[in-house]
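Proteins fold reproducibly. Look at a sample protein:
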Amino acid sequence: MSSQKKKKQNRRIKKPVAKKNKASFNFKMTPSLRFLRNIFIAIIVLFIAFFSTREGNLYGWTYKNLLVENIKFALGKYGELDVHQKYVVKMKDNYQYIKLVKDNTPEDAIILFPDRKHFNTERSTMKLSNQLSHPGYISFFLYPRKVIYDNRESIYKDKYTHVAILDYWGYDKLNYKIDSPVEYTILPVNR
């Protein structure tokens, strides 16, 4: 019995070995050949990149018309765009709302903003990003005004002078009633 068990074990251990193809070529790359191959590939890639993006007809419009002209527009090639217009191009509704807040508050204002969920809702007419919910981002544009958020602790929490109305949020924070509420504005706490 023991000899039968050994035979079964031997059968299990033996695995078929694939035969090597005699036509296969066993070539080892030396470091110097690898270096030469990489240099050759780099030259080909640079050649294709240079002639297809700058000199060739196939993608010349991408570099000259699309890329360069858009950069000139965004930066103002003849100085026709001032800083505020560049911010509007880059930040769209975010900057328009920040400008509204800045133009309608004094420099010593303490402004109460809502928490993140009110910045971009489905029913909003303005598409504000959640970047406005970061204190450093909005304080950069509104300085020297102080910015506080409804859901965060602050030493100015009860001392705010203005409320940023976003998506009809904030009317309950005012000490007076508004007859016709507006979706986006900035209002003082007291009249």
Notes: Helices lie at 2-13, 31-55, 60-75, 83-91, 93-103, 135-142. The mean pLDDT is 79. The first helix runs from residue 2 to 13.
